[in-house]
Amino acid sequence: MNQKTITQSTTAAECEVLAPAGQPESVLAAVRNGADSIYLGMHALNARRSAKNFSYDQLEEAVKFCRLNSVRVYVTLNTIFFDSEREELIDCIQAGCELGVDAFIVQDLGVAQLVKQMAPDIPLHGSTQMSIHTPSGAQLLKDWGFKRVVLAREMSLREIAEVADRVDIELEAFVHGALCMCVSGQCYLSGMLGGRSANRGMCAQPCRLPFSAGRKGACDLSLKDLSAVERVDELRAAGVCSLKIEGRMKRPEYVAAAVRACRDAVDGRSPDLETLRAVFSRSGFTDSYLDGRPGPAMFGVREKQDVVAASPKLLKQLENSYQKPVGRVSVSLTFHMRDGLPCELCLSDGQNTVRVAGREPEPALRVALDEQKLMQSLTKFGGTVFSVQDCQITLDEGLSLPVSELNRMRREAVEQLTELRGQVQPKRFCPSVEDSLDFSMQTFCGLRGEFDRFEQIPLDQIDLFDWIAVDLDELVSNIKKLDRLKEKLIILPPRGMFGREGEVKQKFQQLFESGLKDLLVLNLAQLQLGREIGFRLHGGFSLNLSNTESIRYLEQYGLLDCVLSPELTLAQIRSLGGAIPKGILVYGHLPLMLTRNCPVRNAKSCGECAGKSHLTDRKGLRFEVRCRGGCSELYNPAPLWMADRMREVENISFGVLKFTYESQYQVRQVIEKFQQKVKLDEHITRGLYYRGVE
Q1: Each residue of 387-405: pLDDT tens digit?
Q2: Quick check: 351 and 419 in contact, CB under 8 A?
Q3: Which DSSP category does 219 fall into?
Q4: Locate the Peptidase U32 collagenase domain: which residues (predicted)?
Q5: Rounded to two decimals, what is the model's pTM?
Q6: Phi/psi of residue 379, nearest 5 degrees
Q7: Using one digit for the tens of pLDDT, what is the confidence trace for 533-549?
Q8: What H or E segment, with its residue span, contains residue 613?
Q9: pLDDT tens, 146-161?
Q10: Whole-angstrom Cα distance, residue 522 to residue 492?
Q11: Can you name the residues that pair with 43 across neighbouring β-strands?
């Protein structure tokens, strides 16, 4: 008898669309609309703690469902943590190992260290809260064993391409969703104003409230949502391998619309931007950062027409999009029907293969089965996650088999393959071994000063400080005037170096060759730059060091001392370990935001402002704004003042007086009053040292 073999083939596009999942239903919305990966958090220690998030059992179900659908699962541990939360953190890492998740997304260096020790088989992704926006920052993470870096949202395509060209590490970039005004990981506004820390996943979004640069009631800290869905090809050409959608606080219908739009764009179809705008926007969208064009056009608020744009009918359509399985898993099907032998159906996804035996075929009394009829029965995979990519049928002529038997074999094969694919695949968990470093209480030794401008420095009072940090550009311009102070000088670099890393490095080198040997590190990239040049390294407040693990991690890396996170309480500081000297800010108008888009430009030009202006909130408080080096900083109205409370500060080696926009006369007054431990009557703040943050 003649034998025939028929083959069908299809191909699928390759690109990662990474979707948010703040609740179990969002997992369905993401997966069934085409996401390649999802990111989600457990109930604690993630940057969206106000989302519903996942219990262990819910995470297990999500992992099984994603395994079935060939979707990767990334677990977010992307907040700073406190020593009191160490056991909870370890439980989260262990849960990730037991369920075999595909990556941990982390912000805190202590978290990264524990993940590396306890989950050596699970890749690390550096969260956007690490504020990585230059090649050196990406290189540092690569050297530390990270597989991927989630880049700062403020980067241009040119800046992204520069990182891709220089560093062999996976790059992830946001393609759609809310835009924070502040560089992620550098915002203390919510923590200071209401005790809800953005670095702890509890941001109350005060930036969406009125903060005016001139127009009464204006929201000059509120940006439109980002949408670069139409620019996917440009992002990929720049070196981005993962397109991230923001939105773990959003409803599942939003996730469905955003994922579908990104999936269509990646696969070469026109995305449905109308639905995307309707489901959520703030006065429309912006992609200006990608072109390096920050400005007033980027600002927007959630208006009435934005709220009502998503009709009940549209939301129902989006909900329907994820109610049924879709055939996103390609399988190969082989079917043999030979005279005198039981039939056999094989189904394979490339890693798993199942075989189902059937009845022996009978001679056809009227019409024999042919290839077309067999394919019609065997490839009916509707209502499952499978779709047939290759189908090979081998049959002898003149045979018959009931359609019910073909259907049974197909259903049984689907059930077996579904069970195999949905199994959890645990990864190694190596329990933490406490090191033998003993805790020793540090003793207060003295004061250090930070100065933004050379003209602020009272040279006759410098001996009161163990060292002084001076702004990088001010040092370059005035180094000869400070020649006698070189042993006390530390370089104070910019926190934001967007597109300026080469320039900053050149100035570092210039100052190093002139005799300055110490660098205050305010961004992780500066650890890399400083080590390359040969500086002695000191950690600044913006590294967000808040636990013993992170302090020891940087101590091993060569950090000589560090300024702790201003979000710690005195009680938490008292119990911190680590051998290197630790300090805290004890005076200064605390920086609340680091922004690339200047909020003042909504009301006046740069020429009118001259880099010095302010915002006024709805209570009439004045928040100073200072611009330099392509970034702006927003400062707290009331200065931090701890002079009269220093007796309550324990386990600290030094205090930092941080001078920003004070005149030299004001600087002198502050120094004198601090030395006298004066209790100030005017409006001051104790920061978060007593009230702490959530």
Answers
A1: 999 999 999 999 999 999 9
A2: no
A3: B
A4: 311-421
A5: 0.94
A6: -100, 20
A7: 999 999 999 999 999 99
A8: strand 612-617
A9: 999 999 999 999 999 9
A10: 8
A11: none
